[in-house]
Amino acid sequence: MNNFFEVQNVDFAVGGKAKVRNVSFSIKNEGDIVCLLGPSGIGKTTILRTIAGLEKLNKGKIELKGKILSSEKINVEPEHRNISLAFQENSLFPHYSVKKNISLGSERNEGKKNQKIKYDDLIDLLDISQVLDKFPHQISAGEAQRVSLARSLVTQPDLLLLDEPLSNVDQSFKEEIQEKLKKILNDSKITTIIVTHDSYEAFYLGSKCGIILDQKLKQYDDPYNVYHLPNSIEVVNFLNRGTLIPAEVTSPKSLENKDLGTITGNFVKPFPIGSKVKLLIQPEDLHHDDSSNLKLDVVDRKFRGTNFIYTLKTPNNSLIPVFVHSHHIHQHEINEKFGVKRPIHIDHIVCF
Length: 352
Fold this sequence. Notes:
Strands 6-7-8-3-9-10 form a 6-stranded mixed β-sheet, with helices on both faces. It has 8 helices and 19 strands. The longest helix is centred in the middle third of the chain and has 18 residues, at 171-188. It is α/β, with parallel strands linked by helices. The mean pLDDT is 91. The protein starts with a strand and ends with a strand.
């Protein structure tokens, strides 16, 4: 069976200048959600614009439902792709009311069979009923973003492209909108590519995540694997979810660090015994134990609501993050000693 959507060896470019080179990825099933993560200016929006047909292709091929949309010789016009793109910036028509803006999307949908998304349900889910009679200049940036989202969804496209769809939504409201958006997309089986710089958002919404760095798609995998099994130091540094410490491989299932001692576990990628490596330590890899004889200095403490992330300094000046549940019996202050449980075992040992 062919993939529902496929990008093959594409250079994504603006004005002839390549932003992201030799990109290949696919979406296997209709209704899957893919998130593309990367820093600002890396070319994520260019990828969406090219898929939508707003930028030409001079290398590679883009296919949707077995039909070529873009190649060196073929370029299907944007209006004939049945792809909907919601931009990060406000792209609403200023002289139309919110209601009219959304209905422009539904007009494109007239005559389609099996309408999966009802207009009223969409308005309710995105909580925009109170702004329907207003004009774009009379509503907040977050409301405008949700209206733009509603307009894109109501067209019921074969492929929905969302550029930072929740960047202007208040943090207190963001999780609720994420849940609603995921429900709408899953219920309606609308295949979606979401561009975001928020890894938590990508890991929640996406069945697959792509990491774009240095003009390349560095990793394209399940969110769990992107987080726990990053394939390069660049991905580790971008996600900023751990630290790399020096270690030496001592057996097929262990290594040694001067500060932490012996660490056992399963190597994601095998290394010869005696190899000097950089070991990835993530906050949940180490465990707190007040009675441990391995004591490290607390140099920072971040409160995350459900947990604390303590940053510990080793005698050799490595900074190591450790996750502790916020209901832990007592908190540790800066400059106090913090016990790390031994023996140390990490299920997935990631080294570079």
